[in-house]
Amino acid sequence: MTFNTLRVAALVTLLPVAVWASDYAKPGLTQETEAQIRTTLSAQGYDVRKIDDEDGLFEAYAMKDGKRHEIYLDADMNIVKIELDD
Known about the structure:
With 86 residues, the protein is an alpha+beta fold. 41% of the residues lie in helices and 35% in strands. A hairpin with a 2-residue loop joins strand 1 and strand 2 (57-64).
């Protein structure tokens, strides 16, 4: 009976940690993917500052010609949309 109580206590203790970790995991954005995005955009003259994934697309925040841009790429590294950030 004590062993079962211990297992339940461990589960109750660790479950919130697992849920928290899954909220912050970014399965689509690996180090390799991030490097590909940086290489792709750097070749086009962008200075990439930050990369996220959002709504199935990769979102890069970058500077070019002194202006901030939000650049959205698909999984094949094709630029889908570019927004000029004010």
